[in-house]
Amino acid sequence: MSLVDIALSWQKTEAARETRRRRVSPFDHPIVGIVFPLALFAAWEILVRAGIVGGRLMPPPSKILSTVYALAASGDLTTHVGATLRRVTIGFAFGSLAGTALGALTGYSKLLARLLDPTLQALRAIPSIAWVPLFILWFGIFEASKVALIAVGVFFPVYLGVYGAVTGVDRRIVEVGRVFRLSGFELIRLILLPAVLPDFILALRAGLGLGWMFVVAAEFMGASEGLGYLLVDGQQLGKPDQILAAILIFAVVGKATDSLLLIASAPFLRWRDSHASRI
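Given the sequence above, the corresponding structure tokens read:
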């Protein structure tokens, strides 16, 4: 038996022992993640019903859920969630594609990094609200301006994540690829892409989160439907239950899209033997 076979056999034995040592805990189930918000809602409900906290400006969860149910029963919930989800999806697609392309190019080429990165970093410092009047002048108050604002919000975290991931690839790994005379395409496919993929997924998640934040500012620009419209309508009509219901729906739908992104990316990250996969 060769030394390689002995090493592999020892590694498999240690992995099996570690698996046996690990005890199955009830806290391993994903549903544990909802325990904290449920406890928070229960405490909130108790405080309001006991009169410790006023329920006029901070309605209890039961009132908020009844508002959500009323929106769902009337069909307005589907309309508003669908409009917001459509805008975020289109803006995320455009922003992530542009951020990925420019991040990869500037990370791979020192010349492009010197030319483009300073300008992009300066644009990244511009507040999101500052783009609103410009986009209204360019695109009007219709869908194009809203999607453009969301795309801007998604672009910068994706660009920064991809740029940092590409420039952070270990030089020695690239040198190994060149020793094996890999072509440029093979070097990207076999070495650079697997190296940057975990950071790329993280950048997409950050971009998606900012997309959900930017959609609120986008829907303040004269929208007649969407969750942002529900927020404005609730503020103008003095309905705190509607405002909190919209915030709750934002949280649920945003978390759902983040989970879908994680599920979609999981098959591409199975090769990793990370610390998180062992706990």
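The domain at 61-266 is CATH 1.10.3720.10 (MetI-like fold). Try to locate this feature in the token string yourself.
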